[in-house]
Amino acid sequence: MAEDLAAAFELSDQLVSWSVERGAEQLPTLEGRNGRLALLENSLVKLLRKSEGQPPLERNAWRIKLALAEVALAADKPGVARERMKEVLSEASATDEATVQRLARARVLVCLLGSEDPEVGVTPGELSETETVLASLPAEARETRRLKSALKMAEARMQFREGDGNSALDSYRSALPRNDGALRRAAVTGSPAHLEGPGLHLRGPGGPGGGRGRCRDPPS
Questions:
Q1: Together in a domain, 104 and 70
Q2: Mind listing the pLDDT tens digit for each residue in 171-198?
Q3: Cβ count within 10 A of residue 26
Q4: Residues 57 and 117 placed together within one structural domain of the fold
Q5: Strand, helix or coil at 217?
Q6: 65 in Cβ contact with 88 (< 8 Å)
Q7: What is the chain's mean pLDDT, rounded?
């Protein structure tokens, strides 16, 4: 039974990834994204309720909560995702590399999307804790470098909103080292920017203060 449950959770993880991704190369694109996310969230909530009182399922309830956090992130609801991740991190027991990386990715995205929303925001403590988690991942792995770049982007946005333009520019340079000139012009002029670099894609008005950050693969 334990093996069957493990296989079932592995399959459900793959299906969740398929559902929330916005165009991963290895996954097909599903249509009707918003409706799909709502349907997926409802299904996960029902599954979480059914797991109550069933020890084999209750022990893995954090996996369902992690999936719910990922759905919230996919729906651009970082505040909801942050609350769900608090429960996940207090219950998660897996230590395999794939799960640790998945947890780290969710934490980075909470910071990144939170930094875009003034009502949610991101704190230095949250950034520091997430950076510590990333330090436990393989340093040269492409995904690790993407996540570190994304976290630096979140830090830069926080610094910019706090009025520390110099630190924000340094953080942007660290996240996007190939775009120093464009970043400097965007920071000084506040003009619309379309910036690309290893690990992230930023598009939006207002230079460092605006735009939606998305992870891209850095060069190998």
A1: no
A2: 988 887 554 444 444 444 433 333 333 3
A3: 7
A4: no
A5: coil
A6: yes
A7: 74
Task: Kindly list the distances between the CA atom of residue 40 and the CA atoms of 4, 51, 57, 62, 107, in Å, as whole numbers in the listed order.
Answer: 22, 17, 19, 16, 20
Which amino acid is located at 120 in the chain? V
Residue 208 CA to residue 105 CA, distance in Å, equals 22
Beta carbons of 208 and 183 less than 8 angstroms apart:
yes
How many angstroms separate the CA atoms of 29 and 7, rounded?
Answer: 24
Alpha helices for the chain (secondary structure H): 2-20, 33-51, 55-58, 61-74, 78-91, 97-116, 124-134, 142-161, 165-175, 180-189
C-alpha R_g of the chain: 18
Q: Residue 155 class from Cβ within 10 Å (0-12 exposed, 13-18 middle, 19+ buried)?
A: buried
Tell me the whole-structure pTM to 2 decimals.
0.69
Q: How many domains does the chain have?
A: 2
Tell me the residue range of the domain where 159 lies: 95-220
Q: Which helix (H) or strand (E) holds 204?
A: strand 200-204
